[in-house]
Structure formats: structure tokens, C-alpha cells
Amino acid sequence: RKEVEQDPGPFNVPEGATVAFNCTYSNSASQSFFWYRQDCRKEPKLLMSVYSSGNEDGRFTAQLNRASQYISLLIRDSKLSDSATYLCVVPDNYGQNFVFGPGTRLSVLP
Amino acid sequence: DTGVSQDPRHKITKRGQNVTFRCDPISEHNRLYWYRQTLGQGPEFLTYFQNEAQLEKSRLLSDRFSAERPKGSFSTLEIQRTEQGDSAMYLCASRTAAGTGADTFGSGTRLTVV
Q1: B39: helix, coil or strand?
Q2: Which CA distances in Å does A96 have to A3, A43, A71, A108, B30?
Q3: Which residues of A are less than 8 Å from B107 in CB distance?
Q4: Is B37 in contact with B108 (CB distance < 8 Å)?
């Protein structure tokens, strides 16, 4: 299994839609996970950490499923400004550093 | 000190030339990371420093690549004898020594080798 995998998309959704992305990881001992957002030709920026109990920040909800080894990001009531690439970040197989997924591209359409 | 800064923002160089990039991390962050990102991919780990010590290098980092962080503050990444395949965005990130926090990225240096 690859250290991290994401659905590359693109996801094209209308404004107001709810969209969810999944990210699978291979290191079963992983403890820390993150979702980053990257706009075109910009640097990645931290969107939210992923806690084992799940966490919510406004329209964004992150969840962890340890049994199936995936994390998810749910965006409700999507806005045009949510259009970006969403990168999941998980520990590498040695637990020393983090590995970035290839990203899932989201386009929110008017 | 409001964030991670990288210089230059863009670099165009001829194949075979050497280039050097600089990164100034957030001052209280002991860990500094270099990543490379190509179109359609996530950032790929190159190397990282804990203070001035370089603790790990990726196999992506061929012998043409070298990184330093001489005083545990800013870092430089040098690529010797550049090849067209080196064209990419080179990102620097820093985090606290605890190592479990998230990386804060600089704006990156976009390298084009012609």
C-alpha cells in the first residue's frame, strides 16, 4: 500500500453543494494528520488538523477512520473561494516525517 | 517575523549552471524542511534540519543537491549542474521542535531550467 493516496479529482461541484474527499494511509501507527489547501501557484496552507475524535471548523469537518486507515474532509455549503487543491498529510512509514498526498482538485462552479 | 520567507521567488537558469536558494524560517521553529513540488503532485520531501544538524535526506536528493543550515537559522539549498528535470517549485517549511505540529510553508522558489 502506498504511504498516502488521494482521489485526484477534479471534483466539479455547484455552489452550495456538499463535497467530501478521502485520503488513505499505510502507517497504522500514525497519530497526526492534517489537511492543507493549496491555491494555484501558491504554497500549501494548513486548513485543519485531524483529531481522532473528529473535528469541525465552520463548514469544514475532518474525520479519522483508524480501522480502515483513512481520513476525510467534508466541505458543506461550498463557496467559489473553496476552489483549490486539497492535500492530505500523514506520517511516513517510519513515523519520522510527514508525507503529502498528490492532492484533490476542487472546482466550485457558480 | 511573520512567516517563512524564501528567496528568490523565481529563478531561470541554463542547464549546467549552479543555483542556490535561501530560506528564512519562523524564528522559534527549530525544524526546517525542504520539499520539491512538480505540477499535479504534492510536495515531496527532500531533507530536513533540526537546528543546524541535517537529520535526513531523501533519495530524491542526488549528489548534485546540497543543503546547509550553518547557524541553525536560515538554510540554503544548492543544485549543481542543473538539469531540465530539476525544474520545479522548491518549498521550504518550518515547525517547532516537537515535530508533531504542522509545517508552515514559505512561498517557494520556482526554478526553470532551460
Answers
A1: coil
A2: 13, 22, 19, 36, 15
A3: 42-43
A4: yes
Distance CA A98, CA B31 (A): 13
> Under DSSP, is residue B10 helix (H, G, I), strand (E, B) or coil?
strand
| Nearest chain A residue to B31, by CA | A97
User: Are the beta carbons of B41 and A31 separated by less than 8 Å?
Assistant: no
Q: What are phi and psi of A91, to 5 degrees?
A: -65, 150
Rg of chain A (C-alpha set):
13
Q: How far is A102 from chain B (nearest CA, A)?
A: 4
Residuewise pLDDT in 10s, chain A (110 residues): 788 999 888 999 999 999 999 999 988 888 889 999 999 989 999 999 998 888 999 999 999 999 999 999 999 999 999 999 999 999 888 777 889 999 999 999 99
- DSSP for B66-99 reads EEE-TTSS-EEEEE-S--GGG-EEEEEEEE-TTS
Yes or no: say if B101 and B58 are a contact pair by the CB < 8 Å rule.
no
CB B19 within 8 A of CB A77: no
Are A63 and A69 a contacting pair, CB within 8 Å? no
Residue B107, judged by CB atoms within 10 A of its CB (0-12, 13-18, 19+), counts as: middle
